[in-house]
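[step 3/7] fold_predict: job queued, chain A
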Amino acid sequence: TDDPVSLYTRLAKALIRIMQERTGDGYVFRTDLRLRPDPGSTPLVIPVETALHYYEAYGQNWERAAMIKARPVAGDLEAGRDVLGELSPFIWRKYLDYAAISDVHSIKRQIHAHRGHGEIKVAGHNIKLGRGGIREIEFFAQTQQLIAGGRLPALREIRTLDALAALCREGWIDTIARDELGEAYWYLRNVEHRIQMMADEQSHTLPEDRKGLTHIALMMGESSVDAFSQNLTRVLRTVER
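[step 4/7] structure written:
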């Protein structure tokens, strides 16, 4: 008889294989297995106690930011909610020292250092990680949530748009920032989806060639590449500002 870790590791691998396997109908989801406690030295599945100990002893602020969006989606949903309840003090700290706040801001420096974070452009621009991209909007919301969410439970929203709305209600951002970032988020997500629809791949980078950009522009309802480029550049600059 297998021990629980071996058994559930096999089950998890089988489920992941089913979700990622390409068929004539495409695939279900691509799964990032690195977003788990200490992925370099732990099995795919670990006991709850081990995970809780890891986050309590070694958890970093980028992991706190990632866990903001965590939620159970299948299996024993009550058990999943219980685990997230146990993690709540790790995610939502009531008090942050200067080192913790500095570490939160270091996440943005890491984003800027990413190879995809060059100048704002259209051809070859990374819609997710590039300047003015999706990640900057998410980071903006999550930073405010990490700093204030421990004291203000109303900020503990999972979805980025809900988080922006909550930050506005609580007076952390104004309505202009909420609306501009919200509209930019919708627009950039739509561009991202069109990129991925073209080749059925999890890509976030716009085509380099004129033909590929024309396809994206038409899928976005634009009359030309130039019109698409103008609108995209405006959105990217709004986010960066």
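[step 5/7] annotate
The mean pLDDT is 87.
Residues 4-91 form a domain with the Beta Polymerase; domain 2 fold (CATH 3.30.460.10).
exit 0
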